[in-house]
């Protein structure tokens, strides 16, 4: 397949996955298997992917790279399963670059991507020779992309360090508030916080706010997601963490179906969002620079390389998971 054929196949995929019966069936099965995968969240992930697969976006994206001289390689990809189809960008990059992929899926998300691959191979059967899903020990590959936790990163580096590799670890996303945000911006921030229950590396777990920040407007904006209280596992997390905070005498801002706790950690558990006060924007800029390897997204205004409110769960083709240009890396193999 030449690059035009690959682009056309993925453009067709973008149109097909929104209405495909194969995908609808996979959504139903995945929500039964994994209660964190609600129908709304899975559909949101699929729609976000479909929106990136336009002819113009794909053509512009791939034009930056040169794969014409490369022989196809077999790339093993170990995927996370924290949110629906979180490994799709790696899947797209490997195939669009003309390589073959061996996918090792998380048991938390092992239904959706095979369904997407089935739609893709129905569109372009030649992809059927290039895609393998494996539950066995990985072997016979030329390079590897592995995504996991800080603990699994050490495991991956030990076992796969001899291969060309991209190995990813935990990252967190933060938002920097000034206190002058509009209602629309705060609603967008709540999308960044609560979509996928806050389980993604692009989910906002930590807020940086000025001294004497008033949380009332943010709590009001968050009511858009008050239905999360009806999700039994989310509610169990909320009850547990609120009880823990009260037992330990830790003060918190009660948002009803969520809570905000003053804490220096960038990571927070489900249903809790940490916050920290800052003195000046320059302090935050310095902190971000010093912690680049641990931060995925920065949301806000007047911050270097920040993302607008409400856009963290709508990554573009070039929003690579760890800031490493996956396509550029693939072009060097």
Strand content: 15-25%
Task: Enumerate the spans where pLDDT stays under 50 for 5 or more consecutive residues.
Answer: none
**Lateral strand order in the biggest sheet:** 8-9-10-7-6-11
CATH architecture level-2 label of the largest domain: 3-Layer(aba) Sandwich
* CATH topology grouping of the largest domain: Aldehyde Dehydrogenase, Chain A, domain 1
From N to C, what is the helix and strand string?
HHHHEHEHEEHEEHEHHEEEHEH
The main pleated sheet reads as: 6 strands, mixed
Distance between the termini: 19 Å
CATH superfamily name of the largest domain? Aldehyde Dehydrogenase, Chain A, domain 1
Structure description:
The structure is a single chain. With 333 residues, the chain is α/β, with parallel strands linked by helices. It has two domains: 168 residues, Aldehyde Dehydrogenase, Chain A, domain 1; 128 residues, Aldehyde Dehydrogenase, Chain A, domain 2 (3-Layer(aba) Sandwich), CATH 3.40.309. 39% of the residues lie in helices and 16% in strands. It contains twelve helices and eleven strands. A six-stranded mixed β-sheet has the order 8-9-10-7-6-11. Strands 3-2-1-4-5 form a five-stranded parallel β-sheet, sandwiched between helices. Helix 1 runs antiparallel to helix 3, helix 1 crosses helix 6 and helix 2 packs antiparallel against helix 6. The longest helix has 16 residues. The two termini are 19 Å apart.
């Amino acid at each position: 397949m030449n690059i035009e054929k690959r682009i056309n196949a993925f453009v067709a995929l973008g149109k097909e996955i929104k209405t495909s019966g194969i995908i609808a069936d996979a959504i139903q099965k995945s929500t039964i298997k994994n209660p964190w995968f609600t129908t709304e969240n899975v559909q949101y992930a699929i729609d976000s992917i479909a929106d990136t697969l336009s002819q113009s976006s794909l053509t512009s994206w791939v034009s930056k790279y040169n794969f014409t001289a490369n022989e196809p390689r077999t790339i093993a990809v170990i995927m996370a399963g924290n949110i629906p189809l979180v490994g799709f960008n790696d899947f797209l990059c490997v195939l669009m670059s003309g390589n073959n992929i061996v996918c090792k899926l998380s048991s938390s998300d092992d239904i959706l991507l095979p369904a997407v691959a089935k739609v893709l191979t129905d569109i372009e059967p030649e992809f059927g020779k290039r895609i393998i899903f494996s539950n066995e020990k990985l072997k016979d590959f030329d390079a590897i992309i592995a995504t996991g936790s800080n603990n699994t990163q050490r495991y991956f580096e030990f076992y796969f360090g001899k291969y060309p590799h991209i190995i990813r670890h935990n990252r967190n996303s933060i938002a920097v508030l000034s206190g002058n945000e509009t209602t629309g911006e705060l609603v967008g921030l709540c999308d960044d916080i609560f979509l996928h229950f806050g389980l993604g590396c692009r989910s906002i777990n930590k807020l940086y706010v000025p001294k004497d920040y008033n949380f009332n407007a943010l709590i009001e904006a968050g009511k858009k997601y008050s239905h999360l209280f009806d999700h039994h596992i989310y509610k169990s997390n909320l009850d547990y963490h609120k009880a823990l905070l009260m037992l330990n005498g830790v003060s918190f801002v009660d948002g009803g179906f969520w809570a905000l706790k003053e804490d220096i950690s960038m990571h927070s558990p489900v249903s809790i969002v940490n916050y920290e006060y800052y003195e000046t924007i320059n302090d935050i800029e310095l902190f971000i620079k010093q912690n680049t390897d641990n931060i995925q997204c920065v949301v806000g205004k007047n911050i270097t390389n920040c993302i607008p409110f409400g856009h963290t769960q709508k990554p573009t083709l070039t929003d690579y998971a760890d800031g490493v240009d996956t396509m550029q890396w693939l072009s060097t193999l």
